[in-house]
Each structure stands twice: as structure tokens, then as C-alpha cells.
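In the previous chapter we treated chains in isolation. Here, by contrast, the input contains two separate entities that must be folded as one system, with a combined length of 776 residues.
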Amino acid sequence: MMPERALGRSFTNAWYRELFFLRSNPLDLALVTWLPLLLLAIVAIQLSPSVMRNLPIAVIDQDGSATARELTRRLDAAPGLHVSDHPTDMQAAQQAIRERSIYAILLIPRDTERSVMRGETGKLIIFYNASYSTPSGAALREATSVIQDYSGRLAVEQSAILRLGTVRAPPIAAQTTILFNPQTSYELQLVALIHPALLHLIFMVAIVSALGRELRDGSIGPWLDGAAPATAAAAIGGKITVYILIFMLWGILATAYLAGLRGWALQGSIALLLLGYMAMYLAYTGVALLLIGLSLSMGRALSLSGLYAGASFAFAGTIFPIESASRFAQIWSAILPYTSFSKLLVEQWLMGAAVRVSIPHIFIMLLFLFVGAAIGLPRYIQAASRPETWGRR
Amino acid sequence: MIGRAYLATFRTIFSDSTALLLLIGSAILYSFFYPSAYWGDVPVRLPIAVVDMDHTASSRTLISKLSALQQAELLAQLPSPNAAFAQMERREISAAIVIPEGFEGRILRGEQGIVALYGNGAYLLSSSTALAGVASAMGNMGISAATDQSMAMGAPAPPALGLIAHPMFNAREGYGSTIIPAVSFLIIQQTLLMGMALLAATMREQQGPLAFNGQGLLGIGLAFFTIGFANVAYYTGFVFWFLDMPRAAGQFYALLVATCVFVGATVAAALALASFFQERERPIQLWIITSLPIFFLAGISWPTEATPSWLSLLARFLPTTPGIHLMVGINQMGASLTEQKSEILNLIGLILLYGSISFLRYRPRTNEKKGHIPSPRKEAGSP
């Protein structure tokens, strides 16, 4: 039996050894300090406007009527839109849309006002740039609601002009309510998900590098050779704990930024969210141990990490529903811990789901740690006594 | 001189399996791997459920019309709004339509029957367009649904204004077809940048400081230009066709010019960036952690109009920012070179900027008359 004290010493020694390494290697220190800060800040700043305002659109007014002018005025006054262009024909408008100076073109055809005054429907046409679906979708949504609103007012005017009783408002209207994110904030949805996506990538790079570096430089020998497996495992634990704690701080900071500084209230449990962060880091520790253990090369393991985790954000299914993608994509999505974490985050932050709904995600993430460590850890420890595996690039 | 540097560069790349994988392998690997997240990318039909609290002929007519909606797929009819919200929490449906009690009564009285449409704001990006479509389609179909119920009231008025929406350039409106082309050019940039930095750092580890004169630099640049050009040709010519993306809308020569300036700017930036690396593994680290922010800075998923202007300006120092706009503009939107001139000028500016930086950074020092030409790595144990 290994005395517990020896294990504890091995853990603390490795912990101080890693801190000392970081202190004397500014580039490796940068990877866990100012680089994460820079990358998190860029995303936070870019999305800080939160909603899309004053998206430029063009109006082609072929009608030239008071109704058309009033509609244009209302569109311009809507917070999400800005009528920046009044081209005379479709050709000029299409050129503007290809130059990306506008996202959509509203065509008000001749005789629109006359149709309205006769009690018929004035048919408007909107063309939008579907290659830029996010801003175009927002512009379309806003324009639709302005037009429906104005249409309702026109109906009232119609009934005043025409004989009352024969003309009424359209019988059915849909009132849209956005649940779980009532301010329809893209900042809340995107930043909440991109920050942990960045953090898991940087964390994985840091862990793979920290473990792989020892193999590349052959320092794993002096560090772990001759140690009993349990002592070696404790030392590896001490090394990894440095990074887990640093990245927990980043997770707390990212959460505090959105919930505190930006005021996007967390609907569920903050403790569960942080537990989720911890489980995610442990899961990627497992994956890092697996990749390092199998490749025994820092460069290879890093390349594999990029391939494995680089596209997690696309495969997590939180932005694009993965359910409608291919079977391969669904399997790939399932073997990424970030998928489980992002589900937990959406449930706890936006939906305020019950704790029991999110707990299974934590267990799934821990599974990655156990499987990865079971395969990778013994191979890594063995490599300490096999100098022929050192120095691979 | 240029030719020798060109060939030597290829020999260096082919003798380093990691660089080869990064520069050529990953472009091919990612072209199948990444789009699979979006395969089956039909026009986004929102899975919806309906809750009928009115139980009248009008509400039943409306529900039968809902199942014919192009923008949505009616999956279930549920007893209560809470049941619908629970399904939304489990992501089984993306939107719920609640027909409130008294719906028919209001219509018969000549008022508007208001239907509540609930969308899931936690998944805003994938559903916003479809949600708008469902809302306006319901407004339009209301007319016929209620006609027979309102004989006593006379014919209902058509809405004063009707709106027909036409998507341009990406007519199927797949989410993937807006994202995949953009990501493709990001992959091409990142692999060129990091592949070159990895090679340069490796050579520095083995040979000490690197120096190339103008011709040597041009030869190296042309070699990487060849790889980048081949990657763009592979994506625009094969991958987009294979995935049936909206493509080839512009003229061929415009695409050719766009490819040259984009790849040119990327290679110049790669040369400049590579001059700073001393350690082989650093570029791989950066490649993994920078791709996501660079993608968002490109302004495809989040528009420039809603980005702080100083940040948009800084983002223009990345070749992908003007590059993706230009390539999508020409290939997907069919824009002409004149319509995209600001992006082209931006890229030419980057070629000059990063070209000059590279020239200065690699210029041979006084005691070195001629630049080294890259030679294949000869390292024991290298694969």
C-alpha cells in the first residue's frame, strides 16, 4: 500500500513544478492567461450590440403615393431597419444587394394605394439576401411586422372610407412570442455558447501541450521514471489540476461577465452550471490523456485535438439542429463532451430547467474522463521508462 | 532562383508528414467531415405543435391548414400550452401555436382571431427566418379558414397589404449553404497560415535564423500559392458541386481574379506570420484556438453593421474577412468584380502590407550574402 502522504507529496510537487514552468515560460503562460482573455474579449465585444439595429434595406417606390411614403417612413422608424437607399429600378437595387450595401429590397408596385382604397390587397414584394441569412432574417422579421401593423391601420381607414360592415380586418393574425430569450438577444445565446466553446479548445490545447511537452523534451523520464504507477498518477493529477483551476476561473469570469456585467439573468442553477464547466474540463482531460497516450507525440496529439474538437461548435446542435443532419454527424456530436455541456448550459441559463433534467449531462461528461484515462494514462506512465518514445515531433 | 526555391519548398512540405497533413490532408478531410453537420440541409421546416383550446370548426379548419404549411411541420396536437412548452424544453418542437378559447367567437363577431405563436429563443439563429415565415403565412391563410364561418357578416376583408418574400442567391435557404462556403475559406486560410508557420519554425529549430532574398521569398510564396489555389479550386469546383451548394453564379474570370487576390493575401500573411515562430508546435496551438473568433469576425454569422466599427476595421487585417465576402459574393451571389471592389482593394492592401513585412523580416543580414533555400528536413526519427 502506498502511504497517502507520499501520494499527496507527489501531487503537490507536480503542482509547484508546473507553476514554476509556467512562470518561466511566457508563451505557455500566455496560452492560459492573456490569450484566453483576448479571445473571449473579442467575441464578447463583437456581440455586445446584442440585437441587430438599423439593418440597411432599399425601398423601390413605384407607386409614389402617400401610402407608400408612409410605409417607407414606418420601416425607417423601426429600430431594426434603416431605409438607406431608394433605387428607381430593380437593376440598381440588385446591384446594391450584391455590393452588400443593403440586405433586402421592398418593392411597392404601382397602384398599391389604389388597391388598398378599393378594399383589395396591395401586394408588396420583398427580396432578401439569403446568403447572409442572419441579418436578412432579422430584417425580414422586422419588415413583416411593420407591414402587418400598418396593414391593420389601413384596414381601419378603409372601413371609415368604405361602407362600414362590409369590410373588416383580416380574421386571423398571429402574435409571436419568443420564449426562453424574450429580448431575442443574440448576445445571450451566442456569447453564452461561444465562450465555453473557446475555453474547452484552449483548455484541451493547454493540457495536451503540458503532457506532450514532457515527452517531446524527454523530461518525462526524470519526472516520472521509477515512480510507482499510483505516485505517477498523483503527479499527473497535480499537473492537470493547475490547468483545471485556471480554466475554472475563466469559466466563472465568462459567466460573471454575461450574468453580472451584461445583466442576462441566469434562469437556472449557477452551481450546476459551474459543475458543468468542471465536468467538461474533466471530460477533455480524459480525451487529452487518450490522444497523448495513443500518439505519444505532442505535435500529433495537438493535430488530432484540432481535428477532434475544432468543429465542436458546429456539431453541438445548439445553433443548427443536429437532429436533421446525417447519422455520422449525430454520432460525432455524441462523442463530443461540448455537446453535453452546451445542452446543460442552454437548459440552466436560458430555460431554467429543473436540476434533474441537466444532471445526466454531467455523468455523460465524466464518462469521457474514465474511458480516456483508463486507456491513455497507463500508456503515458509507461512512456516515462521508454526513452525511445521521447522526442517525437 | 525562384524556380529552385519553389521546388525546394515542395520537397520540404512532402518530407514533413504533419505539414503535409495540415496543408493538403486537412482541406480534403474537412471537406467531407465539416459539411456532414449540415447534411440533409433542406429548407428549415420548423417542427411545431398546436394546442387547440377553442375546439370549434374554425380552429379545426385552421389546424388542417397548418399541416399544409411549407415553413413548418406539424408534429403533434397537444392538450395544453404547458405540454407544448415542455416539448419545447426537450427540443422536440421548435415552435408552438396556441389557438385560444373564444377564437371562433371573435371571428364570428367580426373581430380578429388572435393565434399565439411561441418560438424558442434559446435557439434563435436556426429558427428566426422560419418563424417569420410561419407568422406571415398564418396571417394570409386566415382568410380562407374563416370564410364559411362568417357568411352572416359579409365577405371578410382581405388584408390591406400582403407581403410576398423572395429569397435571393440561396433559394433553398439552407443554413449550411450560408455557413459551409464561409467555413471552407476559413479552413483554407488557417491551413496555409499554420502549415507555413510550422515549417518555418521547424527549420529555425534546425538551422537557426532564416533569411531569404526577394526571389527566394517569391519562390516559397508561389509554392504555397499553388497549394492555396488548388484548395480553392477543389472547394469551388468539387465540394460545392458535390454538396449542391448555390454556386458558380458569377463569371469564371471574376472567380479566378477573386481566388488569386484571396490566396495571394493569405500567402503573404502566412509568410509574415511564419517569421515569428520559433517552435514547431506553436502554430498548431494557435490554429485550434483562433479559428472560431476569426470565423465570427468575418461577418457572415454576425453582420458588420452590428459589430463595433473599430473591431470591424481590425478584422479587415485578416484575409478571411474580405476574402469570404468576396468569394461568397462572386460565387454564390453572382457579383461582378466592380461590385466587390472594396473587398478586392482590401485584399490587395493586405498583400502589400504583409508582403513588405515578410520582405523586411526575412532579408539577409549584412554577413549573409545569399538567402538559404529551404532544404528537406533530415532528422533522425522523423516520420
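Chain A touches chain B through 128 residues (CB under 8 Å). The mean pLDDT of chain A is 87. Compare these points with the single-chain example from earlier in the chapter.
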